[in-house]
Here is the input.
Amino acid sequence: MSEALDCGTCWFRALRPHGRHLVLRRGLAVFATVPDTPAQREVLELAHVPFAIGDDYLALIGDASEKLASVFKATCRDLLPYGDLPADDPVVRQAIAILVESLLPQVESAGEVCCLIRCGGGESNPGRLSRRTEFFSRLVRLRGYRPVELSAGMAVVLAGLSDQGFTGIGMDLGASGCDIAVAHRGVPVASCWVPRGGRWIDEQLARRQQWFQREPNGGLRPDIVRAGPTKLSKQGSVNNPSGANENLFAGLYRGILTPAVEQLGRMLSTCGEATLRACPPLTIACSGGATGVSGFAELLQRLVREMPLAVPIGSVRVAADREHAVLRGGLIHAEIEHVGQRSRPAA
Amino acid sequence: MRCRFLANWILAASLIGLAPGMLLAQFEVLPVANESAPRGQFFGVLGQVARPGVYELPGGRQTLNDLIEAAGGLTTAASSNLRIVRSGGQTFFQPRVRVELHSGDLIVCERRRAGMVMAGSGSTAASGRDARDSTGYVTGRPSNGAGTASEPARSSEPETADAVQLGVIGLLDRLVVIAIPSEQATLQNVLATLRQSREGARQISLLRDGSQHRAVPLTEATQTVLTTGTVIVFDAKSAQVDFLPKLPQPVRWTANEVPAAQALITTSDVAKPATVEGMFPRTAPQSNELTVPPDQTATVMDVTEQFQTADEPVAHAAADESSSPAPLVTTREAVTTPTVDDAKAGGTSWVLPTLIVLGSVLAVAGLIGFEFLRRPALKSQSARAAAGAVAAAQPDRKALESRGETIPSVPEPAIPTLLDELITNCLPIVIEPVVLPSGVRIHGRPIERSDEFQLRFDAAHSIPQPHVCQAATVGVLKTAVEPTAAVQNIPRRAAATPPGQRIDTRHPRSMDEPKLLDRVLAELDRSKRASAARSSPAIAGGRTGPSHIGRHLQGGVR
Here is the structure.
C-alpha cells in the first residue's frame, strides 16, 4: 500500500488507495492552547474533543482548535506559518507529530512507501527546506513507511500530463506559494518557487475589501477566513473582468501569475531549453484550490503568450480534481516506487 | 560399436591434449590480481537496435548514447521512446535525452507504431542523415516532408527481427537478453528453456511496454504470450541457477576496439548529442557501424534448441561443448567474461600459450570428430528433451485432463493496475474522519510570536446561550480601541440582535461538523447550571447569563 502526504500551510492531508477508491484524511494545520483548568478539561472530555496535555495547558490540534478557539478565548495558530517549520517551538513540532500520526495509518507490511509532497522553495533558504523535509521524513519513518520526496509541481505533472508523456510544466498554486516544475518524460528538468499563493490573494482581498479581524491588542488583521471562500464564489471571469470587484480580483490573480510566468521564463531559458526545444509545445497543468476561479486558465495562457519564453507553450489546463491532484500525483510517485521496490530482485 | 570406440578414442585424445593446458591455465593464466581488477558495467539493450544484447562498457559514467552507439544505433523502425528498466522499475526517455546509466540498466527500444514514417526515409544514401532530426537522431515523429508520408519505412530490422527479444533479470549477476521464435514466445516455453521449474521460480514479474506491471504467479499465466521488449524479472532467491543453459555472453566494448574508420565517434561527440553521428539506421553503410569481435557478435542467441529438462544436464553439456567452446554456465560465479586482458596479465611465458594453443587445437579437433559421430543420436536426444520439457511444464494441464475438468485459458494480462487507475483518475475519493488521540502528553511551552498570522480572534465578551451559526456578517464589537475608518464600513449586525450578544459567522471550514461548537457550549452550560445549583440554590435554573460561563473560562488568550 502506498501513501501520499501533503503537509501544507492550510491543510495536512493524506491519501491512500483502499479497494476501489481512495481514502483521504485531512486536518487543518492549526493548533491552540488553553489553560489547563478542571472546568475546561471536563468540558472537553464531556464533549469528546481530543486534546493534548501540556505542562499547564491543553492543546487543541487540527479542526477542533479552529472551531473552539473562540469559545475558549484562545489564539488559533498555524502549525507551519507561511509554510515554514518553526525551529524553536517544541510544542508545534509535537502537535505536528500528533497530527501526522493521525493521518497516516500504521503500515500493513514493511517497506511501504509514503510520498512526501515538498511545497515551498528551497532556493532562498535551502537549509530551512531541508530541515523541514528531514523532520517530516522522520515522522513518516516512525509510522513504518519509507519516505520519498516529490515537489508539488512534479506531482501535478504526474497527475495531469499523462497524455503528454509526462512532459510539460506542472504548477501548483498552494496557500503559501506557487511551485512550478518542468518535466521531460517524467524526469524533472527544472523547478522554481514563487512565494505568492492563495493566502496572499486572501490577504490582499481582505485588505482591499476592508474585511478585518480584531487582534488581542486591539489591532486589526485581514480576515482571510472570510476572503478565502469569497474569491472562489465570484461569478465573473478573472480573464475578462467587467466590474470593479472583478477588476480587483483579476488584478490579484495577475499579481501571482505574472511573477510566476517570469520565473518560469527564466527557468526555461537557463535549464530546460536544450532538452525541451525539440519537444512539441509544452502543456501547463495547474492545480490548487485557487485555480478554481473562472477564467484562470485563460488568464494564465494570455500571460504566457505575452511573455517571450525560450520554449513554446501549447495549452494550459486545470486539473479536474484541482484540490487533490497534488496528492494523486504523489500517490502515483509512491506507487511507482513501491512497485519498483516490490519487483526488485532481492540481493 | 566401432564408431563408438573411435569416438571415445578421439575424445580421450583430446582430453589428454587439453589437460596440460587447462592445468597450466588454472595455475598461470588466472592471476588473483586480475580477478580483483575492476570489471566494467553491464548494460542490456534490446528492441529496435542493430545489435541487441548485453554490453560490458568500461567503468565510469556511461550515457544512453554510449550504449546505443555500442549497439550499432537505432533502426529506422525505432520509435521515439526508449524504455529504461532499472531496479525493477521502468521509465521512458527519448534518445536525444542525455541519460546517465547505471550498471544493470536495460534499455528497450520500442518499435514505432504503424503510420509513423521516418522523416526522410527512403531517400538516397545521404538520407541516412536526413532520417534524423536536427539533433542528428532518428526521430519517430510523423513525417510531413515530400514523399515520405506514403512511402513505406525502410526495412531495417535488428538481427533478430523474426524473434521475440526478451530481457531476463535475476537469473545471473548481470542482465541476459535472449531471443525466442515468435511462435514459441510464451512464458511457459521461456521458463522451460531457462530450466526454471514451478517450485524453483515461484513468482516472477513481467515488465512490458507502458505501465503494465504485474507479478505473475506461474500457476496462473504460463501461457502468457510475450512480445519483444518484455522483461522477465526473477526472484533471485528462488530462481534455479544450477542447470541454466548456455546464455549469451556480454560484449565487451571499449573505445580502443573501435576501428580506425570509427575515429569520428569521440567522447566529445557523445557528450554533445547534437553532433553525434554514431546513431544511424540499420541500413546505413556497414563501415559506419561499430564492429564487434566475430566471436561476440551473436549476443542474442536462440536458446530454443537447447530445450532440455533439468534431469538431463550431462548430455546437454556434451552437446554444448561440441557446438561451441564457450563453457556451460552452471553457477552464478561461472558467468564471467574472459577477456584478452586476463590472458595478457597472466601469460608471461611463451611456453604456456603454446601449450594452451596446442591443447585447444587437439581438443577442438577431438570434439569436432566426436560431434560428427554423435550428431544423429543428438538430434533424437534433443527432441526427447524438448518433449520432456513441454511435458514437465504442463503438469497441471495433464492433471486437469485426467480429472475431466476444463482447462482454463489464461488470457493476455491486461488488468489495469492501481497505477493506471491513478493516472487516469478513475478512483473516487472518500473522506475519512481523522481520529486524534486524546490525553497525549506534550512537553515544553508554546512560544508566542508577534509576527505570526492568527487565523481568528474574537474580542473579549461574554458568551450567551448556545447560539446558532448564521450566515451573517460579523458585527463590529465595541472595544477600547476605536475602529479605523475602514472598519466602520463593515456592515453592522442586524438590528434585531439584542445588545450584548454576538452573531458568529459560520466558519466556512466547519460545514462538515456543525455540532461540535454547540456540543461544547451545551456542556459548558450544563456544568454552569450544576455549579450554580450547588453554590446558590436561589438562582439555580434561573440565570443563564454570560457572566456565569465567563467564570468557567479562565485565562483566555495566553
